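Contributing new complexes? Match this layout with alpha-D-galactopyranose.
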Amino acid sequence: MSILINKEKNIFSINTLNVSYVLGIDDEGLIRNLYWGKNISDIEDFNIIKLEEVSSNDPVYEITPEEYPVYGGLRYKEHCLKINFSDGTRDLKYKYLKYTSTDNSLLIKLRDEYYDLEINLHYKIHEKYDLIERYVTLKNNTSDIIEVEKIYSGQFHIPYENLNFRNVHGHWGAEQQMFTQKVGYGKIYIENRRGISTHNHNPYFILDKDAKETCGEVFFGALKLSGNFSGIVEQTPYGETLVQLGINPHDFTLELKPGEEFKTPAIIAGYTNEGFEKMSHNLHNYGKNELMRDGLRDILYNSWEATEFKVNAEEQIKLAKKAKELGAELFVVDDGWFGERDGIDNGLGDWYVNENKFPKGLNQLIDEVKSMGMKFGIWFEPEMVNPRSKLYKDNPDWIYNFKTRESDTSRGQYVLNLSKDEVKDFVYNTLDKMLSTYDIDYIKWDANRPIAQSDVKKDIWFRHIKNLYDIVRKLKDKYKKVYFEACASGGGRIDYGSLEVFDDFWTSDNTDAYDRLKIQDSYSYIYPIKAMRAWVTDCPNFLSKREIPLRFRFHSAMMGTLGIGSNILKYTKEEAEIAKDLISEYKSIRHIIQDGDFYRIENTSSNDYYIYQYLKDNEGVVFIFLPQSKIGHIGARFKLRGLEENKKYKVEYLDEAIEKTGGYLMKYGLDIRLQGDYNSCILKLNSTLN
Ligand code: GLA
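Output block (do not edit by hand):
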């Protein structure tokens, strides 16, 4: 049984395959976290030890590892919930009402002692992925408005000090730069205040006790939210580390009207004592199997880097023909096809096909694309408007603005106030009209600036993103075949909130194949490879100015869902041949890449090899990159993982083919030696011979 309950002791044990998460209600009526770690099958072993006030400065509230601490009473610690009642009371005092449970869910119902405010703690089990999902609902049963100043989705307790904390930092073109830092005393605070993008930090935590890829304890959690989030990690003075995650309380207040209910975004959390690899596998499998659509992702061609805003039907058709010739399956027209869009400062909001660019209409291009047997995709930035647009002229009050302030433009554009019903309808109707008029298979949904001069209502940071999710969900419901790509100036919308709604992540505008290795490596800790869109683009790269051989660029992009973003009309014959071959190779291995298990293989060489393995059933693929050879005669020995000990594997590597047992490949490993700069290769594994 997944949920075990001891009614007398009021103890609840939530169990996945290998993990137990235990909480209970103590004498004081506080919901106390009792355990999070490797499975303990017998709930009877747990007791709730009475906690005594240590001193007047260490009251019981402070020393109790509360499951969901609220602001109120003798609590000075970080809380998850802060409420202002209409009479000015700002002190919350909850009492436990009851629980309800099913085989895979638990609900702990709390209520304020005086005011009829329900606080419900929800837990859901994803058993085979060793993950639990938590969220909180609030229900205002009073006849007054209740103001919520802060509402986090949950708090976790880790019974250790001196942990390592991992997250990413970054900025545009440099997303997913993973960092590790020791957790000492004081607090670590990560957040996003921009409403739109998260190039900077990402809404998750990884806390480990000196874990490695394949061993050691790791506690982790990811928030299903693309908007303003924050997270706090704190090593407390009482010998534990706590971590909280939720909607950022910065510039946030929620008004809960009488009868209204509010649901926080959920956190998907897990524990493993088998290192980072297991954490990634559990999250990847959950993402792939439970959130994402089945089926392999198409190889797309996107015209952005080739044409930028200079879109025209003739050239797009030429690009489409060439893309088809090379092996692409989906042709995506990026920015520049609509309104008077000739640069960043015009056209957003006017979502009609530009007649100068498409004199015979958009269908001319779509028909060509379809007649070649490709799918058709198109770029939108639905939440935005340029001051120079008809939409803005007609609806100047649709943007985020304070009456006495002029709103700031960024990239020459304003953000539409998506929390207004008429704006939400406009965005939905625009997309609905496009999708019902044209045979579109794929929408790249972009958002190229953060929100500013937001709104008088301080919950807009959350409402904006919630309304965005609603729109995309509704569109996907109506247009079942259409896939949606989440993009925000590159990888600004990579999170589990997006993954629940979108199908693809545009990983970064940084398409430099070498920079991408680091970005993709960090990405892989939390997010499934199947959602990681990666393009091959031209050199010198527009951002890094680096020249990298085409084969290396392809190999780097083939690590995710492959896309081509080059100006393929300029490809030489030789480049076109390389592209054709590698696209066709990708087609033969993409089921392993997109649906298989992903391994970050340890590099033991003094050369900086990057080695990644994918494994699905009897087949495997290994990508090996050597960006720069340091000492030419030194190669690397690397050990494969996840193979079957006694099975024989055929290993194809460059022009060689050898046969070895899984045991040998995992223990001795393979010797490789690449030379030169930006060298790379793909190694294939197959055990179907047995
Ligand atoms: C953003 C996206 C790019 C491209 C441009 C178009 O920067 O990340 O891929 O779509 O917008 O303006």
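Reviewers usually confirm one structural detail per submission. For this one: The mean pLDDT is 97.
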